[in-house]
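$ ./design --mode recover --in tokens.txt
reading tokens...
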């Protein structure tokens, strides 16, 4: 912008350059953090199990009056690993004895443990071992389709709201609170656009079967078609309210913390300068290394803090989006009755807290922080470096053109 005293006007970057900067950061971030996002979805969508059973012989009363063709060992894997929640299954072949060996029960318990994730590292290990390493990048395609337009809208919109002279935020909001308001508004716009794609990605990542990526993609598409047929196209935006409850405060906290943290790091880096001078000039004069380090640290810290605070809303959003309901398969008495996942956000979160406690509300918080902190750090540092390179290129072009004017 123009300055008094004959100083050269600062060369800004175009909207297209900002979009390209956001795109490069989106690609890098999605490739690196998708495995953590897969684990987060699995942790949050798995049934609540307070204590897993131990592989010890069960009470004999639990296995009385069973059919003679019942087999646990022969079909243990099919019952407890593939999408089948039945407690028992009938074994094909010759009739077997009705006495159930404790080793057969142990087999069932082992399979239950293999599909239950107790932590982020446990989830990474079990998914890679039981479903293949590529399963950790399940949903990468919709993630890229979602992340690129979302980040273009999000980051470009935030920059416009913060830097434009005509922005109502700069005209009416104190500078200390401007990042919070601008970040929230930019997130509302981005989340509204990509909500259906995020539902598709969430359902793909929540699929627990070990089928191929093509099979999971096909099953997810079939599930979404059934959802649209039963509840209409507005069902594709299911969870948008919860997404807003999660992403809007997250973005406000993140940008507020990011700008405060970045300014603090600049003050520490240049202690001999006044705060206002350092913050107004160092962003265009500092080296690329300083820009990267400051933005990376500020983005990681503010992203982790915002992720922890908003984890309950993330849990609610995930469970709502993976819900599948078909009233035709329900008893008549249960048709039309709202499930907990179909309630309003406050009531649903209260239901989780009542049934599972604070542990249920913050399930997957570690996976979320491990994903969000580096994702924010990588995204914002890539974005800032790309913008700085574009600004430097524009300044060189302006300097080359200035003698001819």
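writing sequence...
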């Amino acid at each position: 912008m123009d300055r008094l005293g004959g100083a050269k006007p600062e060369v800004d970057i175009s909207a297209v350059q900002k979009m390209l900067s956001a795109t490069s950061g989106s690609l890098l971030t999605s490739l690196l953090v998708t495995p953590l996002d897969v684990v987060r979805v699995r942790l949050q969508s798995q049934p609540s199990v307070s204590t897993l059973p131990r592989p010890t012989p069960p009470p004999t009363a639990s296995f009385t009056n069973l059919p003679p063709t019942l087999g646990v060992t022969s079909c243990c894997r099919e019952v407890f690993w593939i999408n089948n929640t039945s407690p028992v299954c009938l074994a094909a072949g010759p009739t077997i004895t009705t006495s159930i060996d404790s080793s057969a029960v142990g087999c069932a318990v082992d399979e239950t443990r293999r599909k239950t994730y107790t932590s982020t590292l446990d989830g990474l290990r079990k998914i890679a071992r039981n479903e293949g390493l590529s399963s950790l990048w399940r949903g990468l395609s919709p993630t890229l389709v979602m992340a690129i337009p979302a980040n273009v809208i999000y980051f470009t919109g935030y920059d416009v709201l913060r830097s434009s002279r005509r922005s109502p935020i700069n005209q009416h909001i104190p500078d200390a609170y401007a990042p919070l308001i601008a970040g929230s508004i930019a997130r509302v716009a981005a989340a509204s656009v990509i909500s259906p794609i995020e539902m598709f990605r969430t359902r793909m990542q929540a699929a627990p079967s070990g089928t191929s990526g093509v099979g999971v993609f096909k099953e997810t598409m079939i599930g979404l078609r059934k959802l649209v047929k039963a509840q209409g196209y507005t069902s594709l935006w299911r969870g948008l309210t919860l997404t807003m409850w999660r992403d809007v405060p997250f973005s406000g906290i993140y940008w507020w913390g990011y700008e405060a943290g970045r300014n603090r790091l600049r003050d520490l880096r240049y202690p001999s300068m006044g705060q206002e001078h350092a913050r107004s000039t160092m962003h265009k004069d500092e080296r690329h290394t300083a820009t990267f380090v400051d933005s990376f640290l500020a983005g990681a810290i503010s992203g982790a803090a915002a992720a922890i605070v908003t984890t309950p809303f993330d849990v609610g959003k995930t469970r709502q989006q993976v819900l599948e309901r078909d009233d035709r398969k329900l008893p008549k008495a249960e048709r039309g009755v709202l499930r907990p996942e179909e309630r309003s956000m406050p009531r649903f979160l209260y239901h989780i807290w009542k049934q599972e406690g604070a542990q249920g509300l913050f399930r997957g918080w570690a996976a979320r922080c491990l994903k969000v902190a580096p994702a924010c750090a990588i995204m914002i540092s890539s974005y800032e470096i790309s913008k700085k390179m574009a600004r430097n290129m524009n300044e060189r072009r302006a300097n080359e053109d200035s003698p001819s004017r």
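exit 0
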